[in-house]
Prior knowledge:
Blueprint: E1 15-22, E2 27-33, E3 38-39, E4 46-47, E5 49-63, E6 66-78, E7 88-90, H1 106-119, H2 122-130, H3 137-147, E8 157-166, E9 170-177, E10 182-187, H4 192-200, E11 207-210
Parallel strand pairs: 2-6, 8-11
Antiparallel strand pairs: 1-2, 3-4, 5-6, 6-7, 8-9, 9-10
Helix pairs in contact: 1-2, 1-3
Amino acid sequence: MGQRFCAAALVPSGVTLERLDTTDTGTIMVIRGTGRTSACPECGTEASRVHSQNVRRLGDLPLSGRPVRMMLRARRFRCDASPCTRRIFAERFGDAVVLPWARRTARLDLLVFDLGIALGGRPAARLAHRLMTPVSRDTLLRAVRRRGRPNFPPPTVIGIDDWAWRRNQRYGTIICDLERRRPIRLLSDREPATATAWLMRQPQITTVARDRGGA
């Protein structure tokens, strides 16, 4: 006999599910933190005195093809440490749940980042809309810039070509790892000296594939 479904398993660890509502437009989850205390972001002191609370509205991963909105009841604590200059602060939930001031859960933000890395701006925005997590192309690019590019292992077989920042006006150089089939570097122009300087810092490269263009 299969295991019984538990609605609490839908939320990230560190928070608990208070209420689950379904509407014609999606699913709403009301959640709150499980800890009795929270560390002050200024001095690190664990605070337990609650000053007030507010509700944060967060986007989350879709459920059964329907958009999900999380209503997070976030408490505001009083910091009693005498040397600390911050008297009241908002509850922290950890980077694996949601970042301070974020409007998306960490797991949705990771999906947005992966889409931006894999597809770029417009194509990723179109796919995100079909996945019921609508975000703009600018949001996707900001997520990529905020997290930074991933660390790639040093390539040994690369492909190199030019690409247009603006067609017929400004061009750059794209370098791809042909073994892993992914772009690894964009250079600001397509001058041979720029590509040569980059290649000089990559002595492990054994094979370079390029087009038949003279540059």
